[in-house]
Specification:
alpha+beta, 8-stranded antiparallel sheet, 25% helix
């Protein structure tokens, strides 16, 4: 199989650095392959959830680039009765990559994560190939607006209370890992 394009998926940390979460390879013969990386042993149980979430991000980029519908992972339940579910509620598209806003709902509460994918959307050697690191302060302003839009549309569908979303909107400390 010949690889046609490869790129990474990152998560934005509170420190402002991008933490690599997965490597993606696209192929001419099959859509793509995702390799989840850098998972500590204590979080190995999250690998299947991450793989599903990242697969949904890549599928959205490749097959439904302008679709505004939200995307939901299945509810992953772990042996200790903990669970996690992700809701991709906004995609911020750029030429040198995309940002995805993900509402992560678990037995511990809710938080919003920003994932960055450095896949070039339009090829052009003259314009460069590196993705801009997301500005935390900029996204602290953007995320509440997108959450409000999401909240109005489909919040109750996912069993996430209005109070939980309001807490996230009002407390920026919950935005990033």
């Amino acid at each position: 199989m010949s690889e046609t394009q490869s790129y990474q998926i990152f998560c934005l940390a509170k420190t402002g650095e991008l933490l690599e979460q997965a490597r993606v390879a696209e192929f001419a013969e099959k859509p793509f392959n995702i390799n989840v990386v850098n998972i500590p042993q204590s979080l190995k149980h999250m690998e299947e959830y991450n793989k599903e979430l990242f697969s949904k991000m890549v599928t959205k980029m490749l097959t439904h680039p302008y679709d505004e519908k939200i995307i939901v992972t299945q509810k992953h339940i772990f042996p200790n009765d903990e669970f996690v579910q992700g809701v991709i509620f906004h995609r911020y598209m750029m030429r040198k990559g995309d940002y995805f806003y993900v509402l992560q709902h678990s037995d511990r509460g809710c938080r919003v994560l920003l994932y960055a994918v450095n896949r070039i959307n339009h090829s052009s050697i003259s314009l460069g190939t590196s993705m801009r690191v997301p500005d935390i302060e900029e996204h602290k302003l953007l995320i509440p607006n997108e959450l409000k839009n999401f909240k109005i549309k489909q919040l109750e569908t996912f069993g996430i209370s209005y109070e939980k979303i309001q807490k996230i909107i009002e407390n920026p400390i919950y935005y990033f890992i």
